[in-house]
Amino acid sequence: MSKLQDRTVLITGGGSGIGRQMAQAFAARGATVVIWDIDLEAARAVTKDLESSSGGVHHAFRVDVSDRAMVARTAEEVRSSVGDVDVVVNNAGIVAGNRPLTETSEEEIERTFAVNTLSLFWVTKAFLGDMVARNSGHVVTIASASGLLGVSRMVEYASSKHAAVGFDESLRMELAEVAPGVRTTVVNPFFIDTGMFEGVRSRVPFLLPILAEAEVAKAVVVAVERNRSVVNLPRLVGLLAPMRILPVKAFDAAIGLLGVNDTMKTFHGRAPRPEPVDAD
Protein backbone atom coordinates (compact mmCIF):
# COMPACT_ATOMS: atom_id res chain seq x y z
CA MET A 1 0.00 0.00 0.00
CA SER A 2 1.27 3.45 -0.90
CA LYS A 3 2.19 5.76 2.00
CA LEU A 4 -0.10 8.25 0.27
CA GLN A 5 -3.21 6.13 0.76
CA ASP A 6 -5.85 8.19 2.58
CA ARG A 7 -3.49 11.17 2.85
CA THR A 8 -4.55 14.68 1.84
CA VAL A 9 -2.44 16.41 -0.80
CA LEU A 10 -2.88 20.10 -1.61
CA ILE A 11 -1.57 21.31 -4.97
CA THR A 12 -1.37 24.98 -5.92
CA GLY A 13 -1.81 25.73 -9.61
CA GLY A 14 -3.43 22.32 -9.91
CA GLY A 15 -5.98 23.28 -12.55
CA SER A 16 -3.72 22.69 -15.54
CA GLY A 17 -0.33 21.52 -16.76
CA ILE A 18 1.94 19.62 -14.41
CA GLY A 19 -0.37 20.48 -11.50
CA ARG A 20 -3.18 18.53 -13.14
CA GLN A 21 -0.83 15.64 -13.88
CA MET A 22 0.36 15.54 -10.28
CA ALA A 23 -3.24 15.54 -9.06
CA GLN A 24 -3.94 12.48 -11.18
CA ALA A 25 -0.79 10.73 -9.97
CA PHE A 26 -1.47 11.41 -6.29
CA ALA A 27 -5.11 10.38 -6.60
CA ALA A 28 -4.05 7.13 -8.28
CA ARG A 29 -2.02 6.39 -5.11
CA GLY A 30 -5.16 6.72 -3.00
CA ALA A 31 -4.71 10.31 -1.83
CA THR A 32 -7.44 12.88 -1.38
CA VAL A 33 -6.50 15.84 -3.55
CA VAL A 34 -7.19 19.51 -2.86
CA ILE A 35 -6.75 21.77 -5.88
CA TRP A 36 -5.97 25.45 -5.45
CA ASP A 37 -6.05 27.48 -8.63
CA ILE A 38 -6.78 31.00 -9.75
CA ASP A 39 -9.25 29.48 -12.25
CA LEU A 40 -12.02 27.79 -10.24
CA GLU A 41 -13.63 26.18 -13.28
CA ALA A 42 -10.34 24.52 -14.22
CA ALA A 43 -9.85 23.31 -10.64
CA ARG A 44 -13.35 21.84 -10.54
CA ALA A 45 -12.79 20.12 -13.88
CA VAL A 46 -9.72 18.38 -12.43
CA THR A 47 -11.52 17.18 -9.30
CA LYS A 48 -14.41 15.91 -11.41
CA ASP A 49 -11.98 13.92 -13.55
CA LEU A 50 -10.28 12.53 -10.44
CA GLU A 51 -13.55 11.37 -8.97
CA SER A 52 -14.45 9.66 -12.25
CA SER A 53 -11.09 7.95 -12.72
CA SER A 54 -9.82 7.28 -9.20
CA GLY A 55 -12.90 7.53 -7.03
CA GLY A 56 -13.09 9.30 -3.71
CA VAL A 57 -14.03 12.91 -3.05
CA HIS A 58 -11.64 15.67 -4.08
CA HIS A 59 -11.84 19.41 -3.52
CA ALA A 60 -11.39 22.60 -5.55
CA PHE A 61 -10.86 26.15 -4.32
CA ARG A 62 -10.23 29.42 -6.09
CA VAL A 63 -7.07 31.00 -4.67
CA ASP A 64 -4.63 33.64 -5.82
CA VAL A 65 -1.55 32.33 -4.00
CA SER A 66 0.09 35.75 -4.11
CA ASP A 67 -2.70 37.12 -1.90
CA ARG A 68 -1.68 36.18 1.63
CA ALA A 69 -5.06 37.07 3.12
CA MET A 70 -6.86 34.84 0.62
CA VAL A 71 -4.36 32.05 1.27
CA ALA A 72 -4.91 32.24 5.04
CA ARG A 73 -8.68 32.43 4.68
CA THR A 74 -8.87 29.48 2.30
CA ALA A 75 -6.49 27.41 4.42
CA GLU A 76 -8.94 27.74 7.32
CA GLU A 77 -11.74 26.66 5.00
CA VAL A 78 -9.72 23.59 3.97
CA ARG A 79 -9.07 22.67 7.60
CA SER A 80 -12.75 22.94 8.51
CA SER A 81 -14.17 21.20 5.43
CA VAL A 82 -11.45 18.69 4.48
CA GLY A 83 -9.23 18.24 7.54
CA ASP A 84 -5.47 18.07 8.00
CA VAL A 85 -3.24 18.51 4.96
CA ASP A 86 -0.41 15.97 4.83
CA VAL A 87 1.40 17.13 1.69
CA VAL A 88 1.63 20.65 0.28
CA VAL A 89 2.85 20.98 -3.31
CA ASN A 90 3.88 24.55 -4.13
CA ASN A 91 3.43 24.32 -7.89
CA ALA A 92 1.82 27.59 -8.99
CA GLY A 93 4.13 29.69 -11.15
CA ILE A 94 4.27 32.23 -13.94
CA VAL A 95 6.83 33.57 -16.40
CA ALA A 96 6.77 37.10 -17.80
CA GLY A 97 8.05 36.18 -21.25
CA ASN A 98 10.92 36.24 -23.71
CA ARG A 99 12.33 39.68 -22.97
CA PRO A 100 15.53 41.22 -21.62
CA LEU A 101 15.36 42.86 -18.22
CA THR A 102 15.22 46.36 -19.72
CA GLU A 103 11.97 45.42 -21.48
CA THR A 104 10.38 43.65 -18.52
CA SER A 105 7.96 45.88 -16.67
CA GLU A 106 8.10 46.54 -12.95
CA GLU A 107 4.60 45.07 -12.65
CA GLU A 108 5.72 41.83 -14.35
CA ILE A 109 8.72 41.54 -12.05
CA GLU A 110 6.62 42.09 -8.92
CA ARG A 111 3.94 39.64 -10.07
CA THR A 112 6.55 36.97 -10.87
CA PHE A 113 8.06 37.19 -7.40
CA ALA A 114 4.63 37.37 -5.78
CA VAL A 115 3.54 34.09 -7.40
CA ASN A 116 6.83 32.19 -7.70
CA THR A 117 8.48 33.20 -4.44
CA LEU A 118 6.34 34.97 -1.86
CA SER A 119 3.51 32.46 -2.29
CA LEU A 120 5.85 29.75 -1.02
CA PHE A 121 5.89 31.53 2.33
CA TRP A 122 2.16 32.23 2.49
CA VAL A 123 1.04 28.73 1.47
CA THR A 124 3.63 26.82 3.47
CA LYS A 125 3.11 28.91 6.63
CA ALA A 126 -0.64 28.30 6.37
CA PHE A 127 -0.15 24.54 6.94
CA LEU A 128 3.34 24.11 8.40
CA GLY A 129 2.38 24.79 12.01
CA ASP A 130 0.00 21.82 11.99
CA MET A 131 2.65 19.60 10.40
CA VAL A 132 5.24 20.60 12.98
CA ALA A 133 2.77 19.91 15.81
CA ARG A 134 2.15 16.42 14.38
CA ASN A 135 5.84 15.99 13.42
CA SER A 136 4.53 14.65 10.15
CA GLY A 137 4.04 16.08 6.68
CA HIS A 138 5.77 16.98 3.44
CA VAL A 139 6.34 20.26 1.60
CA VAL A 140 7.18 20.10 -2.11
CA THR A 141 8.57 23.10 -3.96
CA ILE A 142 8.48 23.01 -7.74
CA ALA A 143 11.49 25.15 -8.57
CA SER A 144 13.42 24.89 -11.85
CA ALA A 145 16.79 24.13 -13.38
CA SER A 146 16.90 27.92 -13.82
CA GLY A 147 16.99 28.10 -10.03
CA LEU A 148 20.50 26.66 -10.28
CA LEU A 149 21.94 28.91 -12.98
CA GLY A 150 21.17 32.22 -14.63
CA VAL A 151 19.31 32.22 -17.94
CA SER A 152 19.27 35.01 -20.49
CA ARG A 153 15.93 36.69 -21.31
CA MET A 154 14.26 35.38 -18.17
CA VAL A 155 16.08 37.23 -15.41
CA GLU A 156 12.96 37.71 -13.30
CA TYR A 157 11.91 34.06 -13.58
CA ALA A 158 15.35 32.55 -12.92
CA SER A 159 15.85 34.88 -9.96
CA SER A 160 12.50 33.89 -8.46
CA LYS A 161 13.42 30.22 -8.82
CA HIS A 162 16.85 30.78 -7.23
CA ALA A 163 14.88 32.07 -4.26
CA ALA A 164 12.64 28.99 -4.36
CA VAL A 165 15.69 26.71 -4.15
CA GLY A 166 16.98 28.70 -1.18
CA PHE A 167 13.55 28.58 0.46
CA ASP A 168 13.46 24.78 0.31
CA GLU A 169 17.04 24.32 1.52
CA SER A 170 16.62 26.68 4.47
CA LEU A 171 13.29 25.11 5.41
CA ARG A 172 14.83 21.63 5.23
CA MET A 173 17.60 22.67 7.63
CA GLU A 174 15.13 24.27 10.02
CA LEU A 175 12.75 21.31 10.08
CA ALA A 176 15.60 18.88 10.77
CA GLU A 177 15.98 20.66 14.10
CA VAL A 178 12.38 21.33 15.10
CA ALA A 179 10.33 18.58 13.41
CA PRO A 180 12.42 15.91 11.65
CA GLY A 181 9.26 14.02 10.71
CA VAL A 182 8.30 16.85 8.34
CA ARG A 183 10.16 16.46 5.08
CA THR A 184 10.74 18.67 2.06
CA THR A 185 11.44 18.09 -1.63
CA VAL A 186 12.66 20.59 -4.18
CA VAL A 187 12.13 19.75 -7.85
CA ASN A 188 14.45 21.30 -10.45
CA PRO A 189 13.20 20.39 -13.92
CA PHE A 190 14.46 21.61 -17.27
CA PHE A 191 11.67 23.02 -19.45
CA ILE A 192 8.42 21.02 -19.35
CA ASP A 193 6.08 20.63 -22.31
CA THR A 194 3.34 22.71 -20.72
CA GLY A 195 1.70 25.73 -22.32
CA MET A 196 3.62 27.90 -19.88
CA PHE A 197 6.81 27.38 -21.92
CA GLU A 198 5.27 26.84 -25.33
CA GLY A 199 7.82 27.29 -28.08
CA VAL A 200 11.05 26.66 -26.16
CA ARG A 201 13.64 24.49 -27.89
CA SER A 202 16.65 22.51 -26.65
CA ARG A 203 19.89 22.59 -28.64
CA VAL A 204 20.95 19.22 -27.20
CA PRO A 205 17.73 17.24 -26.61
CA PHE A 206 19.68 14.02 -26.01
CA LEU A 207 21.20 15.69 -22.93
CA LEU A 208 18.55 18.27 -22.05
CA PRO A 209 15.22 17.04 -23.39
CA ILE A 210 12.01 19.02 -23.06
CA LEU A 211 10.30 17.05 -20.30
CA ALA A 212 6.86 15.45 -20.47
CA GLU A 213 4.37 16.61 -17.84
CA ALA A 214 3.51 13.05 -16.81
CA GLU A 215 7.20 12.18 -16.36
CA VAL A 216 7.76 15.07 -13.96
CA ALA A 217 4.53 14.37 -12.08
CA LYS A 218 5.52 10.74 -11.53
CA ALA A 219 8.96 11.81 -10.27
CA VAL A 220 7.34 14.15 -7.73
CA VAL A 221 5.03 11.45 -6.36
CA VAL A 222 7.89 8.96 -6.07
CA ALA A 223 10.01 11.59 -4.31
CA VAL A 224 7.29 12.14 -1.70
CA GLU A 225 6.82 8.41 -1.20
CA ARG A 226 10.57 7.86 -0.77
CA ASN A 227 11.36 11.12 1.10
CA ARG A 228 13.80 12.35 -1.54
CA SER A 229 15.06 15.83 -0.77
CA VAL A 230 16.08 16.87 -4.27
CA VAL A 231 14.82 15.88 -7.71
CA ASN A 232 16.82 17.10 -10.73
CA LEU A 233 15.35 16.42 -14.17
CA PRO A 234 17.04 15.31 -16.33
CA ARG A 235 20.06 14.00 -14.41
CA LEU A 236 22.41 16.43 -16.15
CA VAL A 237 20.81 19.22 -14.12
CA GLY A 238 22.41 17.67 -11.04
CA LEU A 239 25.85 18.43 -12.48
CA LEU A 240 25.28 22.19 -12.38
CA ALA A 241 26.33 22.48 -8.74
CA PRO A 242 29.70 20.69 -9.11
CA MET A 243 30.35 22.65 -12.33
CA ARG A 244 30.52 25.78 -10.16
CA ILE A 245 34.06 24.80 -9.29
CA LEU A 246 35.02 26.00 -12.77
CA PRO A 247 36.20 29.58 -13.31
CA VAL A 248 33.31 31.85 -14.26
CA LYS A 249 34.36 32.16 -17.91
CA ALA A 250 34.70 28.39 -18.24
CA PHE A 251 31.32 27.82 -16.57
CA ASP A 252 29.63 30.35 -18.85
CA ALA A 253 31.28 28.76 -21.89
CA ALA A 254 30.03 25.30 -20.88
CA ILE A 255 26.50 26.60 -20.44
CA GLY A 256 26.81 28.32 -23.80
CA LEU A 257 27.74 25.03 -25.48
CA LEU A 258 24.58 23.47 -24.08
CA GLY A 259 22.56 26.28 -25.66
CA VAL A 260 20.73 27.14 -22.45
CA ASN A 261 20.64 30.84 -23.26
CA ASP A 262 19.13 30.14 -26.68
CA THR A 263 16.15 28.17 -25.40
CA MET A 264 13.90 31.20 -24.92
CA LYS A 265 14.46 32.65 -28.39
CA THR A 266 11.51 30.68 -29.79
CA PHE A 267 9.34 30.98 -26.67
CA HIS A 268 5.86 32.43 -27.04
CA GLY A 269 4.01 30.90 -24.08
CA ARG A 270 0.31 30.50 -23.55
CA ALA A 271 -2.49 32.98 -23.12
CA PRO A 272 -2.56 34.63 -19.68
CA ARG A 273 -4.60 32.91 -16.95
CA PRO A 274 -7.69 34.79 -15.74
CA GLU A 275 -7.25 37.26 -12.93
CA PRO A 276 -8.80 36.25 -9.60
CA VAL A 277 -12.35 37.26 -8.79
CA ASP A 278 -13.05 38.43 -5.25
CA ALA A 279 -14.68 35.52 -3.47
CA ASP A 280 -16.61 37.95 -1.33
UniProtKB/TrEMBL annotation:
One of its GO terms (cellular component) is membrane. Pfam families: adh_short. InterPro entries: NAD(P)-bd_dom_sf (IPR036291), SDR_fam (IPR002347). It comes from the Bacteria. This is Short-chain dehydrogenase/reductase SDR. GO terms for biological process: alcohol metabolic process; hormone metabolic process; isoprenoid metabolic process. It is found in: Membrane. SUPFAM superfamilies: NAD(P)-binding Rossmann-fold domains. It is a multi-pass membrane protein. Belongs to the short-chain dehydrogenases/reductases (SDR) family. GO terms for molecular function: oxidoreductase activity, acting on the CH-OH group of donors, NAD or NADP as acceptor. PANTHER family: PKSB, RETINOL DEHYDROGENASE 10. Keywords: Lipid metabolism, Membrane, NADP, Oxidoreductase, Transmembrane, Transmembrane helix. It comes from Euzebya pacifica.
